[in-house]
Amino acid sequence: MGWALVLHDGAGDVPRTLPPETREPRLVALCRCLDRGARRRQARRTSFVWELEDCPHFNAGRGSVLTADGTVEMEACIMEGATLRCGAVAGLSTVANAVSLARLLMEKTPHIYLAFDGAEAFARELEANRRVYVLTWSVGQF
Fold first, then answer.
1. Residue 112: Cβ-neighbour burial (10 angstroms; 0-12, 13-18, 19+)
2. Which UniProt keywords apply (predicted)?
3. Per-residue pLDDT reduced to its tens digit, 74-118
4. Strand 85-92 and strand 74-80: pairing?
5. Contact, 117 vs 89, CB < 8 A?
6. E-assigned strand segments in the chain
């Protein structure tokens, strides 16, 4: 059986007529993701998704669209097909790479889904014990 890599670059409709200064960084980030994923061939590796989460041109992570209240609410999910294990987090506003928190949820707990205050508390707990990537961003940085 082969393997597959599925990338979702955020919600919304992205027009084909994006100007080059917006389109090119997206293409570069996607190519890096695909290259990393192809080289690793492991769904557990999440660093290739960081390319999307760290790129301000994607509706994910740093490029998240703000809610009506002017806040960020991110979510991420990861699944290992061979083991059927999964982890999902939602309603995050202080975690730099949501997919990494979803992976840690899958690997370190019996839970498959945490949202909002529970997900943020899990991230803070890991920050205290494992020096994980919890950040507080201001609205102006998005």
1. middle
2. Autocatalytic cleavage
3. 899 998 888 999 999 999 988 888 988 999 999 999 999 999 999
4. antiparallel
5. no
6. 74-80, 85-92, 113-115
